[in-house]
Please model this.
Amino acid sequence: MKTYFQPEKTLWPEILRRPLYEFSELQSRVGSILNTIRLNGEEAIREFTRQFDGVTIQHWEVSPEELENAGDMLDDSLKKAISQAAFNIGEFHRPQLQPVRKMETTPGVWCWQKTVALEKVGLYIPGGSAPLFSTVLMLAVPASLAGCKEIVLCTPPAKDGSIHPAILYAAKLAGVTRVFKLGGVQAIGAMAYGVVTPKVDKIFGPGNQYVMAAKQLVGFSEVAIDMPAGPSEVAILADSTSQPGFIASDLLSQAEHGPDSQVLLVLKEDKLLTAIQEEVKQQLNVIPRKEIARKALDNSRIIVLNNDQEMIDLINWYAPEHLIICTHNYGEMAAKITNAGSVFLGNYTPESAGDYASGTNHTLPTNGWARSFSGVNMDSFVKKITFQEITISGLRNLGPIVETMAAAEELEAHRRAIAIRLEQLTASGR
Model:
């Protein structure tokens, strides 16, 4: 990790640049794959799956028997952990559903909003180098709670064409209705165009830069998407009261996601700098995915600053997916954070807890999109339809206001839609 001491704000954009491909090249490559899928359908998906995943799939959909038997291949302790995580996620998300509330905005004018679940949602679950069954829970539990009728899941197959049993177990537990052996850009294309899988209304889920680009491209014209969620990232705010070993473990927990992940440490003064660097070296050597993490660390940074406000300003500019604040005054610092996907407070709140089982959602905006996007929540799986009902007295109260505004905008038909009703009421003596 390259270290910077008191860098000028003008240098922040260059120092904090994410390790992304040049977008026009990425867009061109992904767009070509999507267009081939749109034109050639299943034949193209089968060829891309053979090319990118190294496997030829004859039967795309996981059978009911495979789903039913997946639990037999897992330890009871893992099944219990998955069940508890699903419960916690449900407990956090369920209260986000809001009841219908009718509001009388003007006497006789009633307005309300009805929440309606999206009918068909598609969940993308990364599974190439690690079986992210936790992401199944993060997406399928709220989708099920929202009342989505069809919950379609796509995840990359292994070389033998199988899906990891933990993914299948979590899918069945969380209410997924159909599971398909599809990964990468081809999975996004399948769900967007209705090739092999049903055509869905909205696609959810994280992935690498190719998956993220594919989601954005189909989002222009085919389906809605949750957010631009690409390679994982974490930022940590620390000071002399922080624990070097904890910081190192949190940095590495994100770095092991993939070589294009990025981790950032913002340290107040440099008292713990050497200790943290040593911890990173020692812990890196004992994790199985150390080569992946090592590559991610090459993209990562340590920035040493002198005061809290500079640290806050830098984080709000960077807008990280995950933010850990383990300073002595973490509550005060957290209150000033405006751009982050999910925030973890204190020395004993590792980001891993949110990844798996605390209850909050781990599908979050990356690459600075936390400036304008929220993480996945119950609102992600529903749409809201507004209703209004105006009584005769309500029309008399509101009508003149609408007439005045319509006339000012020179939209005479709009004005007359009010006037003709008021005239009819006056003529009838009502």
Notes: The chain has a mean pLDDT of 95. The chain is about 45% helix and 15% strand.
